[in-house]
Design brief:
Alpha-lytic protease prodomain-like; 6 helices; disordered N terminus; Cation transporter; Cation_efflux_TMD_sf; transmembrane
Length: about 220
């Protein structure tokens, strides 16, 4: 009887490890770790808040992929908890970017448009590569979906960084950089809300199924 309860996919069942997906996650982890270091240095050189925001986002994504690798093959309960943790961390990144954006707006910082454009183009290529790799693995539990949402948001954000570089070059002010950073903060918070909602739904479903699983797991007399 105990074995039969998981035919429908109980929360304690461990899914088979998807080796292709695992290789994709390792590749994305390496790309994002390298881009975090690159953009962190570039943001300091260019004095750009949108590049800083993107570098922090790359760090968050690297952690995202590392957590996903850790829980790959674990039961749904653990994967949902990992997604919830990633959703909260993504929201925290969004709030951090919002704070730094307000600081730069107050100080009227004017970044270096050339560095922004060059590094933004490199970051865009990296994120498009990751998004393409993950596109075919975007469906499934909240943990998989969280990985796809973060990668999708990153590609959109890099297009915005390049637009900001053009805006800074054209206007000679830091307002385009500030506007893009504000958009990136909004994207992060919105993405976090999606991930948290999906993870909470999965955890609620697991909790409601627990009594039935316990009944099925009662040893036959």
């Amino acid at each position: 009887m105990a074995a039969g309860c998981c035919n429908g996919g109980c929360s304690s069942a461990k899914p088979p490890v998807d080796k292709i997906y695992r290789r994709v996650l390792w590749t994305a982890l390496a790309i994002n770790s390298g881009m975090f270091l690159t953009e962190l240095a570039a943001s300091a050189a260019a004095d750009s808040v949108s590049l800083l925001a993107d570098s922090v986002d790359f760090l968050a994504d690297a952690a995202n992929y590392a957590i996903s690798l850790l829980v790959l093959g674990m039961a749904l309960r653990w994967r949902a908890r990992a997604a919830l943790l990633k959703g909260v961390s993504l929201g925290a990144v969004g709030l951090l970017v919002a704070f730094q954006t307000a600081w730069n707006a107050f100080n009227q910082t004017v970044p270096e448009a050339g560095i922004m454009g060059a590094v933004g183009a490199l970051a865009l290529a990296a994120n498009i590569a990751c998004a393409l790799l993950l596109y075919f693995h975007r469906e499934g539990d909240s943990n998989r979906r969280s990985v796809w949402i973060c990668s999708r948001n990153d590609a959109i954000a890099n297009l915005a960084v390049m637009a900001a570089a053009l805006g800074v070059f054209g206007t000679g002010t830091g307002w385009p950089d500030i506007a893009v950073a504000a958009i990136m903060a909004t994207l992060a918070v919105w993405g976090a809300a999606q991930i948290i909602r999906h993870a909470r739904e999965e955890l609620a479903g697991i909790a409601s199924a627990m009594p039935a699983e316990k009944i099925h797991n009662v040893p036959a007399e």
